[in-house]
């Protein structure tokens, strides 16, 4: 069973540091980590011995551990506090409240712990801790203070049940919110009805992250007391996962040499460490102890030493434990992504039919969608994935579909679903990764300067969706699918009325002009009014629905109100097409407008006259507009002309209009506004990206042709 959830802890590095500091003090003094009474609990031999070496468990007088005794709530909380490196804090709390509890004994006598009792000290609500468990006072109070356990749930002398441990451990590991969302989760156990309602979600979460498994008879036995050996095994899974592979007291690697008195271990870094094997060393093989002669070159081992080259505990991992040398495939959902103290990325996957399993991504782990390579940053919680792993090291991760997403998604709409919950889109990126996106009720949808409704979207549309927790709050349609049953959105450039009907010429935001014949029964709508085709005017902004090659519906989204006299702003793109030169201006209010420059337009910069093709991105302009054409352009300030050749710097602004534009500041602080070619090649290492993948702060090198970026290499992500 895998149980790996340290990644949720914000202070995991500090926990490891405290564990190793304490281990150093103990292991320098101890030469024998055995307890004398582990018969019948050999299955937990390695866990118990390791936790003893790390100072998490101490046992009883006479060098006994009593592994098969039920662990009391006080004992369980004490082990947990030590495993989390908080014993100093526990001792401080014990000093603070010890006097209060001592006075309680004087006044109340030594009562047994029969049910939860609440106490108050200077307004602070405290749990009742009877005298026989007063040794654990600080640990119990700290657990309450940390929110691991509620005062009403504390009975320190009582055996800790499986569901009680599930609740406390899930809270301690930071999964309270997830657990409380699983109160109605389905549990497969035949005795699930025996699980307390307030523990139901915690048991479900504990199963998901691998804290517990059911029994072979398909029961969970929620009220069964957890034994001391079982508690040690639960904690050891987490401690063992978080401990670095190479420390002064703990290493993990493969045996490269072994003799009767020494062992050499080759670490993942390539370094070899040789240990003298203590005469009292405990050697563990799976669920039993062994001897040095049972160790072979190539075995994977974990060694706990005294920091001075003497091995005190050697745990030989079985092939079943390590799964190494064989690539196995796991299918499931990512429930956690974390980075350990060594900077390695780890993903926890809820594997179908197996519970949770954590994988470390190998340095050369291949991460792909169903079509092309992705990068580690493309992974997100909720992704459905296929993991190919050697042991617990992932060598390949294939993303089948995405889970919860925040940020931007650029892709093509594959499907649209309507339900009582609203509108949902199935969107596929170029990588092949598919997202299920639900539209927020107030979602803003635009296509150029047009505002659309959700029902205007259609399969085949390419969109950029901005999301928060898989809810789209803004969608920009970058290109329409066209074709049967689709829409054309644009501005009316001509209305032709003939004896055979009406034909419209409509120009979309990309400058494409469509000649569309209206059906004889065409429906023309403007707000709440139904119009006739003759009432469609030049310059009106329209949405046309096409069926069988003709327009069956005209929705006028904006009436042409005549020329806007003057706009001011900054040119973000300049493009040349069959219709001449067009400019996109980002106005002072942040809105962008694309205008064709009239053939006879007057363009000036101070006393200098310019041609339209001399305008450039970054120019601050004042534009006189008539009939959606720029008839006069006054350049108030020139944008810095990008140099020829390579340009290096950092991106400080990004515009995704048309092909896109970036503003780059070079090492000298000079700002350049650089338009991107429609075929621009963007790379980051071996990954090929899109303009929408660019980030402010990216360090880039840009190859230019005619002052347009044709290749952009990201050297460092912002």
UniProtKB/TrEMBL annotation:
Identify the InterPro entries for this entry.
Cell_Envelope_Struct_Comp, SLH_dom
Q: Where is the SLH domain?
A: 31-94, 123-183, 186-249
- A Pfam family: SLH
Under what name is this protein listed?
A: S-layer homology domain-containing protein
């Amino acid at each position: 069973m895998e149980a790996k959830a340290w990644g949720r802890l914000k202070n995991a590095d500090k926990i490891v540091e405290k564990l190793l500091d304490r281990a150093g003090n103990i292991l320098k003094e101890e030469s024998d980590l055995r307890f004398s009474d582990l018969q019948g609990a050999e299955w937990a031999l390695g866990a118990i011995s390791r936790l003893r070496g790390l100072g998490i468990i101490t046992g009883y007088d006479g060098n006994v551990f009593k592994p098969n005794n039920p662990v009391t709530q006080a004992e369980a909380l004490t082990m947990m506090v030590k495993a989390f490196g908080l014993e100093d804090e526990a001792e401080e709390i014990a000093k603070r409240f010890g006097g209060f509890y001592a006075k309680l004994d004087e006044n109340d006598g030594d009562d047994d712990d029969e049910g939860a009792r609440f106490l108050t000290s200077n307004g602070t609500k405290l749990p009742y801790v009877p005298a026989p468990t007063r040794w654990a006072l600080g640990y119990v109070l700290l657990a309450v203070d940390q929110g691991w356990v509620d005062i009403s749930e504390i009975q320190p002398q009582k055996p800790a049940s499986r569901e009680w441990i599930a609740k406390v451990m899930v809270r301690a590991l930071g999964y309270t919110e997830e657990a409380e969302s699983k109160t109605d989760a389905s549990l497969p156990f035949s005795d699930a009805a025996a699980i307390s309602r307030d523990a139901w979600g915690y048991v479900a979460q504990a199963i998901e992250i691998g804290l517990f498994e059911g029994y072979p008879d398909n029961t969970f036995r929620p009220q069964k007391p957890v034994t001391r050996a079982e508690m040690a095994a639960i904690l050891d899974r987490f401690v063992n996962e978080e401990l670095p592979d190479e420390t002064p007291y703990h290493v993990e690697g493969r045996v490269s040499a072994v003799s009767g008195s020494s062992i050499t271990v080759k670490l993942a870094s390539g370094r070899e460490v040789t240990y003298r094997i203590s005469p009292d060393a405990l050697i563990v093989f799976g669920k039993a102890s062994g001897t040095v002669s049972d160790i072979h070159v190539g075995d994977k081992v974990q060694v706990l030493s005294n920091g001075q080259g003497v091995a005190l505990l050697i745990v030989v991992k079985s092939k079943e434990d390590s799964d190494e040398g064989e690539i196995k495939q796991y299918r499931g959902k990512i429930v956690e992504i974390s980075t350990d103290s060594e900077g390695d990325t780890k993903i926890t996957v809820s594997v179908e039919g197996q519970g949770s399993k954590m994988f470390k991504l190998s340095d050369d782990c291949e991460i792909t969608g169903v079509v092309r390579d992705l990068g580690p940053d493309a992974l997100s919680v909720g992704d459905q994935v296929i993991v190919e792993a050697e042991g617990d090291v992932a060598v390949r991760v294939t993303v089948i579909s995405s889970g919860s997403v925040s940020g931007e998604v650029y892709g093509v709409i594959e499907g649209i679903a309507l339900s009582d919950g609203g509108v949902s889109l199935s969107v596929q990126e170029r990588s092949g990764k598919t997202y299920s996106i639900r539209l927020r009720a107030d979602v803003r949808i635009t296509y150029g300067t047009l505002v659309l409704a959700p029902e205007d979207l259609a399969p085949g549309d390419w969109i950029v969706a901005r999301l928060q927790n898989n809810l789209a709050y803004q969608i920009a349609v970058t290109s329409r699918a066209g074709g049967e049953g689709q829409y054309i959105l644009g501005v009316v450039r001509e209305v032709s009325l003939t004896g055979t009907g009406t034909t419209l010429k409509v120009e979309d935001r990309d400058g494409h002009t469509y000649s569309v014949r209206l059906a004889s029964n065409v429906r023309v709508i403007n707000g709440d009014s139904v119009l006739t085709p003759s009432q469609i005017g030049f310059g009106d902004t329209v949405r046309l629905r096409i069926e069988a090659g003709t327009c069956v519906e005209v929705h006028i989204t904006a009436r042409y109100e005549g020329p806007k006299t003057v706009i001011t702003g900054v040119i973000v793109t300049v493009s040349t097409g069959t219709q001449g030169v067009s400019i996109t201006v980002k106005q002072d209010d942040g809105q962008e407008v694309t205008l064709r420059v009239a053939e006879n337009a007057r363009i000036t910069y101070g006393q200098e006259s310019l041609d339209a093709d001399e305008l450039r991105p970054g120019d601050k302009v004042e534009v006189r507009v008539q009939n959606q054409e720029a008839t006069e352009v006054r350049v108030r300030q020139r944008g810095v002309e990008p140099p020829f050749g390579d340009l290096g710097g950092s991106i400080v602004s990004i515009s995704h209009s048309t092909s896109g534009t970036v503003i780059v500041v070079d090492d000298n602080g000079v700002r350049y506004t650089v338009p991107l070619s429609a075929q621009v090649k963007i790379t980051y290492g071996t990954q090929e990206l899109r303009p929408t993948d660019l980030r402010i702060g990216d360090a880039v090198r840009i190859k230019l042709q005619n002052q347009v970026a044709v290749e952009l290499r990201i050297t460092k992500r912002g």
